[in-house]
Amino acid sequence: MSKTVYLGMTADIIHPGIINIIQEGARYGDLIVGLLTDSAIVSHKRLPYLTYDQRRQVVEHIKGVAKVVPQEDWSYVPNLKKLRPDYIIHGDDWKTNYLSKIRDDVYEVMKEWGGQVIEIPYTQGIDSTALVDNARTIGTTPDIRLKTLRRLIAAKPVVRIMEAHSGLSGLIVENAEVVRDDGIHRFDGMWSSSLTDSTDKGKPDIEAVDLTTRMQSLTDILECTTKPIIYDGDTGGIPEHFVFTVRTLERNGVSAVIIEDKAGLKKNSLFGTDVRQELASEEEFCQKISAGKRAQVTKDFMIIARIEEIIAGRTVDEALVKAFACVRAGADGIMIHSKEKSGTDIQEFCGKFRREFHTVPLVLVPTTYNQFTEKELASWGANIIIYANHMLRASYPAMQKCAETILRAGRSLEADDLCMSIKKILELIPGTK
Fold first, then answer.
1. Domains in the chain, ordered, with CATH?
2. Is residue 307 within 8 Å of 261, Cβ to Cβ?
3. Which of 147, 182, 243, 312 has a C-alpha 20 to 30 A away from that of 12?
4. Which position among 205, 261, 300, 332 bears the catalytic label?
5. Do 366 and 372 form a contact (C-beta atoms < 8 A)?
6. Which among 343, 315, 189 is positioned nearest to 258, based on CA atoms?
7. What is the pTM of this model?
8. Residue 249, C-beta contacts closer than 8 angstroms, at least 6 positions apart
9. Within a 10 A sphere around the Cβ of 65, how many other Cβ atoms?
10. How far apart are CA 277 and CA 299, in angstroms?
11. Residue 70: which H helix or E strand, with range?
């Protein structure tokens, strides 16, 4: 009976190092490739450019591969226990990198049935990180970007979205990352907000700003980033206008549009203590959603209904009635909004909504109830968390302080510590180096 060899990989970018380790592994027996799923990868690294099925199709046709199986966990151990291979093969770079703990676990589990760990020298001259950076510099296509949001929702417990109102703020969202105990944390995508876009232009947040004007800022972001974008569509206008909006956004690679159930002159939901905002009827809001769904060309574009009942002083149950109707009308997700700082109304809504719809994406915007962590919001049933205006709000006090510092000193020397160097700014922009 032939011996079996296990090799775990992501296979998003096939390079000579991967071919080398496949050829080496095949020398020992039938090579089983444990191909990491999107959900296994995305908790520790960026979402792969290629889907699991695309990556599987490539790997299956590489000479030396006997079989491809999904690896649903970041660790190799669950698959090793299930398959009990004679060997596992890996590059020796895992002795000192972020996989060192997994390496220890692999050695321990392989002892259970007398399996052997084969470590081969890491292929010199191949820098996977540099390959990824180069791919990011090249950019993406509207089709790939459009599909990414649905992939992220399927792969991650919660999708983290940050507001971007310009090309530069988009680049910050694209590249920001911090290392925590449970891995590297990044933003998964961007929120194109009507509030921050109009404020950045020094104009009031009113729906009179048309799609053509909004598209100028949106194009700036699209041209220098690769992550998915959710577009704030306000009320969406009349159904005929919303149809045009859907087609324009979809054609440009935007992943989703969120429209709210308001009628009449727009008033910001969080303005003041008593916003008398007329809400659209259930019938007219659902008709607009249905018209948008009929207008889209791909199945990947998402129309998300923003429910304003709680903001308008109505009950959670009234908000649920409209949310249920929107889902039945074709909405791909529900955003529920509240200005209540306790978050109890949102938690109640999420619990009741999840009892009716288990998989329809729920979007939360914890601007007022920001004491809750993403993990806590996910436990309520949230799929997407939007930080809706923080980039703009952070930029204003920073610029104000810089301007006042220069005025007080009569020179710019004292402002140096408040400013990023021009060199670092240029390094952030693709193609500048």
1. 4-129 (3.40.50.620), 139-388 (3.20.20.60), 394-428 (no CATH)
2. yes
3. 182
4. 205
5. yes
6. 189
7. 0.86
8. 231, 257, 301
9. 19
10. 33
11. strand 65-71
Structure tokens at 172: 């910050």
3-class DSSP state of 170: helix
Q: What is the pLDDT along the chain (433 residues), one digit of tens a residue?
A: 689 999 999 998 888 889 999 999 999 999 999 999 999 998 788 888 889 999 999 999 999 999 999 999 999 999 999 999 999 999 988 888 778 889 999 999 999 999 999 999 877 655 565 556 565 666 688 999 999 999 999 999 999 999 999 999 999 999 998 888 777 889 999 999 988 888 888 877 665 556 778 888 899 999 989 999 999 999 888 888 899 999 999 999 999 999 998 875 555 555 544 444 588 899 999 999 999 999 999 999 999 999 999 999 999 999 999 999 999 999 999 999 998 999 999 999 999 999 999 999 999 999 999 999 999 999 999 999 999 999 999 999 999 999 999 999 999 999 999 998 888 888 777 666 6
**Rounded Cα gap, residues 242 and 211, in angstroms:** 10
Question: For residue 41, how many C-alpha atoms fall within 13 Å in the half-sphere facing its CB?
Answer: 23
49 CB neighbour count, 10 Å cutoff: 16
**The tokens of 226 are what?**
């690769």
| Phi, psi (degrees; rounded to nearest 5) at 279 | -95, 145
Q: Please, which residues have CB within 8 angstroms of residue 176's CB and are 6 or more apart in sequence?
A: 162, 186, 187
Q: Are 239 and 288 in contact (CB under 8 A)?
A: yes
Q: Count other C-beta atoms under 10 Å from residue 319's C-beta.
A: 27
Distance (Å) of CA 259 to CA 151, 236, 355, 428: 22, 6, 24, 32
| Residue found by looking up tokens 């961007």 in the block | 190
DSSP 8-state code for residue 414: G
Instruction: Please tell me the total number of residues recorded for the chain in this structure.
Output: 433
Greatest pairwise CA separation for the chain in angstroms: 83
Helix (H, G, I), strand (E, B) or coil at 51: coil
- Buried/exposed code over 386-399 (b: 16+ C-beta within 10 A; e: otherwise): bbbbebbeebeeee
- Closest by Cα among 289, 223, 229 to 256: 229
Nearest to 149 by CA among 285, 299, 288, 297: 299
The residue type found at 269 is S
The DSSP call for residue 42 is H
Is residue 205 part of the annotated active site? The answer reads yes
Angstrom distance (rounded) from CA 18 to CA 41: 17
Terminal-to-terminal C-alpha distance of the chain: 55
Cβ–Cβ under 8 Å, residues 197 and 165: yes
Q: What are the distances in angstroms from CA 41 to CA 7, 105, 397? A: 15, 18, 37
